[in-house]
Specification:
Shape: globular
Number of domains: 1
Largest sheet: 8 strands, antiparallel
Number of helices: 3
Helix content: 10-25%
Length: 190
């Protein structure tokens, strides 16, 4: 497995979002293959960096290759990778195919159904025990380990999910046909 370093993220968010599909992401040895991402570019009104720096989004204004972790609905953590640009873009890691640490993920999630362990950003963070404590940490250092995709799967492409601004932008990417996606892609998107 080829480790990915900060240079991998020194590109625009759309390019990184596509390239992450099939990559292996581990947090303290627990994780799996990235099967779904969403890109948020620097000029994107749906991006947290669009309105400028705040306490919540400070990591997005740091160097590429760092984690940007935030909470949605006051309940669920979301893991993003900061990319190149001024202000920075980011990639939301929406879903993994769990491969490493299945028993621990099942314990954390309260289910042994592998499909429900990491299929969605909140589930993924709960399964990997990602919280605000990981915000700003580098993806190429512990507790993270990130490895290049060994076989790049066919991509499914569609609009992003759960946003109100620029919702029709087709910057959601997934491993075509994966049963571990947070939601299926429209048939024409595969």
């Amino acid at each position: 497995m080829t480790p990915l370093d900060a240079g991998f993220f020194a590109r625009d968010a759309v390019t990184v979002a596509k390239a992450l599909i099939g990559a292996r992401l581990l947090v303290e040895g627990v994780g799996g293959l990235v099967v779904e991402t969403e890109a948020y570019d620097r000029d994107d009104p749906a991006s947290h960096s669009f309105g400028g720096p705040t306490r919540r989004n400070a990591s997005m204004f740091g160097p590429p290759g760092r984690a940007y972790v935030y909470r949605i609905y006051g309940a669920h953590w979301c893991l993003n990778a900061v990319c190149e640009g001024e202000p920075r873009g980011a990639v939301l890691i929406r879903a993994l195919e769990p491969t490493d640490g299945l028993e621990l993920m099942a314990l954390r999630r309260g289910t042994s159904d592998a499909r429900l362990l990491c299929s969605g950003p909140g589930r993924l963070c709960q399964a990997l025990a990602v919280t605000g404590a990981e915000d700003g940490l580098e993806f190429d250092r512990p507790p993270f380990a990130l490895f290049a995709a060994e076989d790049a799967p066919a991509l499914a492409i569609g609009p992003r999910i759960g946003i109100s601004k620029a919702a029709d932008v087709p910057w959601r990417f997934g491993a075509a046909g994966s049963r571990f996606l947070s939601r299926p892609f429209p048939k024409a998107a595969a």
